[in-house]
Design brief:
This protein has 16 helices and eleven strands. The chain is α/β, with parallel strands linked by helices and about 350 residues long. A six-stranded mixed beta sheet has the order 2-1-3-10-4-11, sandwiched between helices. Strands 7-6-8-5-9 form a five-stranded mixed beta sheet, with helices on both faces.
Amino acid sequence: MMRPSAWLAAGLALAAWLDVARADPVAAFYKGKTVTVVVPIGPGGTYDFYGRLGARIMEKHLPGNPNVIVQLMTGAGGALAAAYLDKVAAKDGTALLSMHASSPQNQVLGVTGDQYDLRRFLMVGQFVPLNSSLTVWRETSPALTIQDAMQKEVVLGSTGAGSYQYQLPALMNVLLGTRFKVILGFKSVSEENVAMERGEIHGRGGTLISWAITEPHWVKENKIAHLVQIGDKPAKGFESVPLVQDLTANPDHKKAFMLVGASSQLGRSLVGTPGIPKERADALRAAFEKGMKDPEILAQAKKWKLDLDPIPGEAMQKTVTEILDTPKPVVELVRKALNIKPAAAK
């Protein structure tokens, strides 16, 4: 039988907990919980690093200071992870995603069918917009410029047909006359990098900054060449690399390239599941913004050689919506050029 003093202590503890819960229900919810940040591409790339940075931010700045872990979930150019968040993961604010930047365009193109609907996701925040490139190994590639790639076959690797690693060169073949051959099925950029060194492929798509993170000695020793980039404007320090949309005068073709290159607008970001209660959604966004001003987090980003140019969740939500609202004629142009049939129609 519990002594009166024990009853009193238990009652005081319960009262204190109730006071905390009433004062900050978000902290009360997250205290003792585990939050998972899902990474859609294998280890060693920028999705992994930015995902881990997001995990550190949430562990430090989310009320209640939950334990935060990172889970790799690769496959289908990021669609598997997005589908998991939409269909399987808890919708309570304990599951986040280092979202594959190709996810919005793949939804627009119908590549992923009804696996996920990003209109319902919570955009927590964007770390940085990132221009992407098609990059080759100098020693083995038959083409070191985009003009060369219009004359000679260049073999590129890709994680899947839903990735811009496939979609961008395939669209360039149709609209610009390049001769890229894309090999699908790589599990990660690290695996693709090994294949480049072995001469199994000539190159791959990747964010321009990622090379300094994944293979800094390649950059230092000038072992790679960037054929083309995609983004709203040339990336700083890469002004000599042509923008793919500048290689055509056709306005619809320009829009088509910007659709498959929409990932450059979204760069690396953190998103949450549909259905997160508003007070927790607000807390997740606030934690992200605090993290982007935290000297400790900024120092870690610098150590990992991660660029930061943050965009708040509300603005990121607008960008995603604009991509999802791409005019139908442009969508049909891209579908036809890439021979894409909506997944539901297959």
